[in-house]
Q: What sequence folds into this?
């Protein structure tokens, strides 16, 4: 499944040119620093940072992070935004590997599936992890 992320990013199926067309990058970053978003993101990150991942999976995650960073940097010309997306894809991949199902994380995934940059207060989805990932990758 992780290789499908690389394919989708490469083919511009996950992150396309309209992603940042009419956005104020500084405003988006400020919304990422919002207390609710930041605390939820860190909560999920800390949980997923504890899981054991095989070296082969780490290598694929690193490629996904690199591809998403480059793609977003080319679209936004912002290394800060590109870092956020790269970090998001790291936790998304780790959730896929571990099966970690979390409503807030699933909402973050659905933001990407809707071609939206996740920030601020996310609309909580009823999709589970599998449905969210399938929605994103199909």
A:
């Amino acid at each position: 499944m992780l290789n499908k992320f690389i394919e989708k990013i490469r083919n511009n199926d996950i992150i396309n040119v309209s992603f940042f067309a009419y956005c104020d990058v500084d405003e988006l970053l400020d919304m990422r620093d919002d207390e609710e978003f930041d605390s939820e993101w860190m909560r999920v990150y800390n949980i997923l940072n504890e899981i054991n991942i095989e070296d082969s999976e780490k290598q694929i995650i690193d490629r996904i992070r690199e591809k998403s960073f480059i793609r977003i940097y080319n679209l936004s010309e912002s290394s800060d935004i590109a870092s956020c997306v790269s970090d998001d894809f790291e936790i998304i991949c780790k959730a896929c590997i571990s099966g970690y199902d979390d409503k807030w994380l699933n909402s973050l995934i659905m933001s990407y599936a809707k071609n939206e940059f996740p920030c601020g207060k996310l609309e909580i989805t009823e999709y589970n992890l599998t449905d969210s990932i399938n929605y994103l990758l199909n």
